[in-house]
Amino acid sequence: MQKRLRLRTAWRAGAGLAVAALVMAACGSSTGTGTATTAGGATTSTTRPAHILPGGTAYFALAPQVTPDWIFPFASLQYFSVANLTQFQYLMYRPLYWFGSPTSTSPDVDYSLSLADAPVWSNGDKTLTITTKGWKFADGQAIDAQSVIFWLNMLQAESGNWAGTAPGANQWPGNIKSYSAPQGATGHTVVINLDGTYSTTWFQYNELSQIDPLTEAWDVTSMTAAPGSGGCGAVSKTAGLPSKAVLADCVKVWTFDTDNNGAAKHPQMAGDLATYASNPLWARGADGPWKL
């Protein structure tokens, strides 16, 4: 079953109408007309791109008892919901491959909106090469090989806390035999070797669709730590899987970044709705068109 079809919609996060506010971080060209509300409340006519709103603040309402309660783009089944992912996180944090075009109802992959080019298959479809485009996170770091491998390392260490995990051989992530970044951490190429031959379309739509590149700013174990100091984003130029030491580092990074699903309470972590907009950790990892 495709990941996007497994999203759940159950919510237990308070009553009333929730309102979210996001600020446009980037926009494109071409024109259209619309309205904008100023800080003083006045409504003015604007010129905008045909499919992209102008920079400014957008507010949208959610249904009663529907409130985002998980901001980190690596979620367990408990938080793997439409409201958390497609209605909230995707506005700020882009997946590696984007499915669905703004002008189409088809769920096909849209490479123009994706963070990476189409994967290149080789070795009898047992090996795939992913090349990122060099887009950047809000803190200026490029979305590179390390960004993808950071997520893959986290998956190896915390597969039980990823809703897309399917236990057993020939399943995700057990079907990953090894991976590497031949050009190094700052390169843009990631090579993944699989344990067998799979339908390339199936693998992209069901497995690669799950990857959300992560910024080094999240590879930390404290708010004051240097980006990448957590060690979970360790990159190898030769094929392999993360060492026990790297896996242990990933567990520590997960515990800090996400509050370990509430096991260790922290006032600035993934489940603390009140600090989403004020926590600089979440702003640094944004690579989409909006920020809180």
Care to give the gist of this entry?
This protein has 292 residues and is α+β, with helices and mostly antiparallel strands.
Please characterize this protein's 3D structure.
The structure is a single chain. This protein is an alpha+beta fold and 292 residues long. It has a domain at 96-265: Alpha-Beta Complex (Dipeptide-binding Protein, domain 1). It contains 5 helices and 9 strands. The chain has helices at 85-92, 145-157, 200-206, 244-258, 280-284; strands at 18-24, 33-37, 43-47, 57-62, 120-122, 127-131, 176-180, 189-194, 290-291. The strands form 3 sheets. A 4-stranded antiparallel β-sheet has the order 5-6-8-7, covered by helices on one side. It has a 3-stranded antiparallel β-sheet with strand order 4-1-9, with no helix packed on it. Strands 2-3 form a two-stranded antiparallel sheet. Helix 2 (145-157) packs across helix 4. It is globular and about 50 Å long.
- In this structure, how is the largest beta sheet organized? 4 strands, antiparallel
Question: In what order do the strands lie side by side in the largest sheet?
Answer: 5-6-8-7
Determine the structural class based on helices, strands and strand pairing: alpha+beta
CATH architecture of the domain at 96-265: Alpha-Beta Complex
Number of helices: 5
State the distance separating the first and last CA atoms.
32 Å
Strand content: 15-25%
CATH class of the domain at 96-265: Alpha Beta
Can you count the beta strands?
9
Mean pLDDT over the full residue set: 83
